[in-house]
Structure formats: structure tokens, C-alpha cells
Amino acid sequence: MLIGGFAAQAQAQSNVTIYGLVDAGLVSERGGVNGSVTKVTSGIGGQSRLGFRGTEDLGNGLSAIFQMETGFKADDGSLDSANTIFNRQAFVGLKSKDAGQLTIGRQYTMLYNAQSQVADPFGAGYAGSIKNLFPSAGANTRVSNAIVYTTPTAGGFSAEALYALGEQAGSATAGRQFGFGLNYAEGPLNARLVYNNKNNDTAAVGTTPAKIQDTGRNTMFAVNYDFKVIKAYFAYSADKGVNSAQIPVANAYGFAVAPKASTDSNDILIGAQIPAGNGYFMTSYIRKDDKTVNNQDANQFALGYLYSLSKRTGAYVSYAKIKNKNGAGYTVGNNNEAGSGDKAFNVGIRHAF
Questions:
Q1: Do 228 and 316 meet the contact criterion of CB atoms below 8 Å apart?
Q2: What is the fold, at CATH topology level, of the domain defined by 16-352?
């Protein structure tokens, strides 16, 4: 009876959810130094994952929250990130109806959330992913040792702030990162203005001297509007400094002179989701304008279709092509992979649970 009482009390006060996504399909890539590449792969539309999230009611509108999420590869069963269990998210915090939410741990940046949740009709996945040209590599997507505060929503508006410690011995600033976000979501309109700042310095270690570099700074505005017959998307990003616009694959085309990552560029996306049958088409045009002396611009055109077999299961097909200029080296990837060439075709299935 005593054990049963404790169990009933825990069930009344806390809630834990197990969730996940299994996404696998066929990818065909063309145009890279390795020629034609065809493979079965995982995480094309969204990375296959297993997660745990929970809340505990602490009373007076205050709750304890946590989330732990690991990525895996459905094609071979391995972890998405070697030697790391909860590589996608791992945080704990407090949430108040009146004071907002504070979380600590490994978390998404405001920059990536705006790209995947607001800017991209492909949701940062499939061949048309915004990640092919917009800056989203590494710590631009997720950052460890982060403290994130989110305000309550009022009149559709909310704000977010992130600060991540670099945790490098001998330096309080090396490797640190901070970001801000202003969000609006009301009716058919969803918009975000975000800023991300990454310190690229490394502290001295033994006989290796400290390395001082320019920061990477990204400012992005993203908006979508649902007209019912079509959902329109737009995004604009200004990227300045070291690591503000990475090249996912160092030299995918085997150029004699490898492409150089831009330290001053602008990105623009125009796209749409168009309902059709038991699903919707996804399409977008993305342009990267490299403002450095190298002028390594790129354009991407993409089209895809997601068919809903049920509320949890969908089948998809997508295609994208990138046109690189002046020795630029961008590739057509998907949500989980950077890709190997300037063209890619995907077909697959995904199930959420």
C-alpha cells in the first residue's frame, strides 16, 4: 500500500513522454569529385531520433522540465554521433506561466530554430534543405553548456536569449557563444528576428599558444504566412566574420584551389508549401551572395512532395540543384548529411512516435 501510494503521487505530479522519429530512404547524388553516389541513408527529412521529455508540477504555476534526445542511423542502427549519447539535446530547467522558462544544458540556437521552424518550407530537411547554403553547421545549430531564457508570450510576441560558456581553461571568453531572438506568432503569421555570435578564439594549452580570431556573427529575419491555398516563406541572413558561413564539404569538386568559406555574405530564401491531395509540395529558391573578393556565390532550386499516409507516417520525394560560381563548393545534402555533389534526389518514408 505504501509503495502504491508513492507511485500514485508521482504519477499525479510528473509526466514523462518517450518520443521519436524513424526516417530512412534512398539518396542519389551527382556532380561531385566521386561521381554518382547512390545509397540508403537515414535522417533525410529529419534525423532519426529517440527522446525523453518530462515535466513535474511544483505548484503555483511553476514546473520542472527536462529533455534528452539522441540521434541514430536507421540504415545501420549506429549512433548519429560517436561516443555521445544525448548529442541532440540534453537540458533541465524551470518553466513558469508568469516568469517564462529557464533551461541549462545542450540546446538549439535561436538561429537554427528560426531556420528550421520558420524560414524553410523543407523544414531544414530533404534535398532542398536551407542548411545547404544558410549558415547552420556545428554550434550554429546546437551548443553545449548553454543557458537559455524564454519570456512568456504576450500578444503573440516572445523573446529568447542564449549564453553558452566556452569552458576553456585560462580564458573567460574563448569559445563562448550568445544569441537573441524576437518572435511573433499569431494566426497565419509567424516571424522571427535572431542574432547569433560565436567566439572563435582558443585558449593556450601547454606549449600551444592561444589563437585569437574574429567572431562569427549571423543576423537573420525569417517569416512565413499561411494563405491556406499556399504558405509563403521568406528569409534573409547577414553573415560576417570567421565561421559565419561554413562550407560543409572542404573540396567536394576536387578543385586545384579549394573553395574558401566566406567571411562576409548575405543569404536569401523565397519558398512555399502548396497543399495538394493528401500532402503538400515544397519548393524554394536560395541565393548566397559572397561579398568577399572571391565572389563565390551559389544558387539553389528545390522541389519536393510529402504525402501523409497517416498522422504519424509520411512518404516523400525531393530534388535540388545548386549552381556554384567562381569556384564555390556548396553541395546538395539533406537534414543529416552534407551531400557530395551539386544535384541530389531523395525518396523515403518517415514515422513519428
A1: no
A2: Porin (2.40.160)
The answer on pLDDT for 1 being more than 60 is no
How do residues 277-335 score in pLDDT, each as one tens digit? 999 999 999 999 999 999 999 999 999 999 999 999 999 999 999 999 999 999 999 99
Please give the model's pTM, rounded to 2 decimal places: 0.94
Which band of pLDDT confidence, cut at 50, 70 and 90, is reported for residue 8? very low
End-to-end distance of the chain based on CA atoms, in angstroms?
34
**Do 132 and 336 meet the contact criterion of CB atoms below 8 Å apart?**
no
Helices (H), 62-185: 110-114
Torsion 194-200-205-210 (CA) sign: negative
Q: What are phi and psi of 118, to 5 degrees?
A: -125, -45
Asked if residue 37 lies in contact with residue 29, where contact means CB atoms within 8 angstroms, the answer is yes
Instruction: Give the tens place of pLDDT for each residue, 98-136.
Output: 999 999 999 999 999 999 999 999 999 999 999 999 999
Do residues 113 and 97 make contact, with C-beta atoms less than 8 angstroms apart? no
- With a CB cutoff of 8 Å and minimum separation 6, the contacts of 294 are 260, 262, 326, 327
Average pLDDT, the chain: 95
Burial 36-70 (b: 16+ CB within 10 A, else e): eeeeebbbbbbbbbbbeebbeeeeeeebebbbbbb
SS3 content of the chain, % helix, strand, coil (to 5): 10, 55, 40
Query: Per this entry, what is the length of the chain?
Result: 353
Contact 96, 115 (CB under 8 A): no
Return the ∠ at Cα 233 (arms to 228 and 236), rounded to 5°. 160
- pLDDT category at 74 given cuts 50, 70, 90 is very high
- Beta bridge partner(s), residue 305: 281, 317
| β-sheet bridge partners, residue 18 | 52
- Domain ranges for the chain: 16-352
